[in-house]
Amino acid sequence: MPPLLRVRASAPWLIAGLLFLVTASTLAQPTAMPSSPSASPVARTLSQAFEAAWATQPLAASRASRTDAALAAQRAAATWMAGPPAVGGTTRTDRLGSGAGALEFDIGLSAPIWLPGERDRSGRLADTQLAAVDARIAAARLRVAAVVREAWWALQRAELEHALATDRLASARGLNADVLKRLRAGELSRADQFQAEGTVAQAEVALADSEAARSAARQTLAALVGAAPGTTLQLATDAEPEPRDERPAGQPDARHPSLAELSLLSEQSRRVADLASVQRRANPEVGVTAVSERGAFGERYANSVMLSVRIPLDAGARADSRIATARAESDELQAQLVVEGNRIAAEAEASRARLAAARERLAAAERRATLARDVRGFVEKSFRLGESDLPTRLRVEIEAVEAQRQAAVARIAVAGAVSALRQALGLLPE
Hints:
The structure is a single chain. The protein has helices at about 10-25, 45-55, 60, 65-75, 120-185, 190-225, 255-280, 315-385, 390-425, and strands at about 5-10, 85-95, 105-110, 285-295, 300-310. With about 425 residues, it is α+β, with helices and mostly antiparallel strands. Strand 4 and strand 5 form a beta hairpin.
C-alpha cells in the first residue's frame, strides 16, 4: 500500500493499540445460543391441534435462527465498517539470515468502508428481511392450518358416521329382537325374520366400514399433530366462530398472510436491487500501519505511521447482472401477488356461497329429520299393534336413520364451511 503520510511515533504503543481494536471488534459480536424445540402434547381442540402440528414443522424450529440472522444484518448495517477489519505484518532486510544490515518491521490494520449510499440501503434491506421472516412464518402457519382443518373435519365426519352406524346397528338389533318375539307368538312369518336379520347384517357392514374410515382419519390427524401411531384422539366438537370483520366482496385483503408474504418478498427483492445499484465496485479500504526500521546494524530504530487507501474499480457487467436478477425477481413476485390476490378473493366468495348453501341444506335436513322421526313413531306404534307390516316398518326406519344422518352431516358441513371461510380470509384456528 502506498504511504500517504509518515510521522514519528512509538511503535510498541501503535502495535498495542491496533491489537486492542481488533480484539474489541471480535468481542463485540454476540453469540447466539441454539434453542431446542419442545414436544407438543396431543390436542383436543382444533386450535390445540393446529399449534401441535405447527410445533413439528421445520420452519417453526428455524424461526429463532432466521430472526437472529436478520437482527445481525441490522447490527452490521449500523457499524461504521462495511466488513471485518484485517491485520497484516511484513518484515524487510537487505541481508537475509543475518541480523546485520537494514531491517524494517511493519504491522498494520485495514478495514473496508461503505460506498456512498450503501450503508443506508443495507439498513433498509435488513429491516425488510426481518419483517419478511415474520411474514413467511405467518404464511406457513396458514398453510399448516389448511391441512389441519381438512384432517380435523374429516375425522369429525368419520366420528359422526361411526356413531350413527352404531345407533343404526342397535336399532336394527332391537327391531330383530321384536320380530323374533312376534315370530314365536305366530304374528310374523319366517320371511319377516330373514328381513330383520338382513337389516342387522347390513348395519354391521356399515359399522365395520365406519370403523375403518375412523381409524384412518384418526391416524392422519395424529401424524399431523405429532402423536404416536395408534394414539386415540378424544376431540372436542366445538366449531370455530364465524368471522365478523370480513373484507368487502371482490377486494383482496393486504393483511392476508399469503399476500403479506409475497408483498414483503417483492419489497425485499427491490431492496436487493437498490443495494446492488450502489455496489458496482468492491468496498474501498483504509488502513494504518506502524513501521519500525533501521538503516544498519547498531543504529536506533525509527518509528513511524503510514496511512493508506485502496479504491477498487467498477465491476461493470457483473454488477449489471446482479441488479437485473434482483429486479426480475421483484417483478415476478409482484405479478404473483396480483394473481394470488385474485385467487384469494375468488376463494373467499366461493366459501361464502358454500356456507350459505350448507345452511340451507341444514335447515332442510333438520325439517326432514323431524318429519321422519314423527312418522317412525307413528309406524312403530302401529307395527306393535299389528296395523302395519314389517316392510313398511323397515322402510320407515331406514328413512328415519338416513334423515338423521343427513341432518348430522349437514351440521358438520356448516361448521366445516365456517372453518373454510376463515381459512380463505387468512384467519388461524381458534
